[in-house]
Amino acid sequence: MKAVVYKGPREVAVEEVPEPEIEHPNDIVIDITTTCICGSDLHMYEGRTAAEEGLVFGHENMGIVSEVGDAVSTLEEGDRVVLPFNVSCGFCQNCENGYTGFCTNVNPGFAGGAYGYVAMGPYQGGQAEKLRVPYADHNALKLPPGDEHEDSFSLLADIFPTGWHGTRLANLRPGESIVVFGAGPVGLMSAYSAKLQGASEIYVVDRVPSRLELAEDHCDATPINFDEGDPVEQVIDEHGGEVDKGVDAVGYQALDPEETDKGDDYAYDPAKENPAVVINSLIRAVRPTGELGIPGLYVPEDPGAPDDMAAQGRLGIDFGKLFEKGQALGTGQCNVKSYNRELRDMIIEGRADPSWVVSHRVSLDEAPEMYERFDNREDEDEAITKVLLEP
Ligand code: NAD
Ligand code: ZN
């Protein structure tokens, strides 16, 4: 079958790979109908990780069940399902408590598993024609048959629940104000979730105009462009003070506003990055005793990694300011299963429609070109926010 295979920094190819098979009676195999490219894939694509050549990417997967293991009891051939990006067992202590992003059985030695992701276990990705799904009764979320809401449902694998998770980590309550750093797919879904949850004021910080426009148009957010000055001062000026809550939807590849080339030439350059800048900005922008949600991805310090990667986990965070302000923060992978059923039902009932974040739906063969374009975040003023692949 065809699959998107990692070849090395900034290079993926569509190649023939072996088809997945049932390996355990709890498994199913699905025919992929939609699989998305994620900002998290870009960490591997940009060569920031120890991802090895040959890895099949893809953790945001949905499709139709084509094979069913003997011990699977709730799924049958032909069912339409979406899979959380987390691979989880359903019966460890964390899974029992809803923390499926931190399953202790699927990936010993690391907190949590995922499809097609470096360090997240031996699970092949779904940017391919087929995917094996372990612990299928637990992991697969059934969808209404047909092809209605295909775009919105595909976002249930990751970014809609992850955006929602950002607001829950910050314990957002109706009527509160919130600032979201990052207007990528995750930040846009956080701002949209804040709107659905009744936030009073929503501020979204980025520097990519087409992304800020989406935040304004679909989340009723006030856009804050950090190329136009300190984003924290801008938020405090607009709001008339610090906001109640904050979300970091950027992660460790944060551009340093001080160092950013203000020209149109938009490309990631490690020399212009400062992984602590967003968390420190949130500490400043949020009021004393406010809460911060950090779904943006950070990586552990790794003494065994090449020099430029080893210290990525060591951040210069102003912990003293956080302490002075008595702020709480929540971090980590999204526990997709704790949100995806309710978010699915909101989509079915017409109370949520996150499909506006999708900018492109293309064939699997176009993946190499779309990785390159998504990595630029926009090109020639065209928004490239969320790319869906259709094998
Ligand atoms: P993305 O790279 O498309 O979006 C990040 C955005 O942040 C970009 O638009 C960029 O312009 C902006 N940005 C860069 N520096 C900034 C700064 N200093 N201030 C404000 N904005 C800044 O990625 P995405 O798909 O939206 O994902 C965002 C983050 O969430 C990534 O780190 C990704 O790995 C992570 N993620 C986490 C989970 C989880 O479960 N916790 C799931 C999915 C993605
Ligand atoms: Zn993702």
From TrEMBL:
InterPro entries reported for this sequence: ADH-like_C, ADH-like_N, ADH_Zn_CS, GroES-like_sf, NAD(P)-bd_dom_sf
Pfam families in alphabetical order: ADH_N, ADH_zinc_N
GO MF, any single term: anion binding
Cross-referenced PROSITE patterns: ADH_ZINC (PS00059)
Cofactor(s) this protein cannot do without: Zn(2+)
Positions of the Alcohol dehydrogenase-like N-terminal domain: 25-144
The keyword Cell division belongs to this UniProt entry's keyword annotation: no
Keyword annotations: Metal-binding, NAD, Oxidoreductase, Zinc
Domain of life: Archaea
Residue ranges of every copy of the Alcohol dehydrogenase-like C-terminal domain listed in the record: 185-254
One GO BP annotation of this record: small molecule metabolic process
Entry-linked PANTHER family: GLUTATHIONE-INDEPENDENT FORMALDEHYDE DEHYDROGENASE, ZINC-TYPE ALCOHOL DEHYDROGENASE-LIKE
Recorded family membership: Belongs to the zinc-containing alcohol dehydrogenase family.
Protein name stated in the entry: Alcohol dehydrogenase catalytic domain-containing protein
Protein source organism: Halovenus carboxidivorans
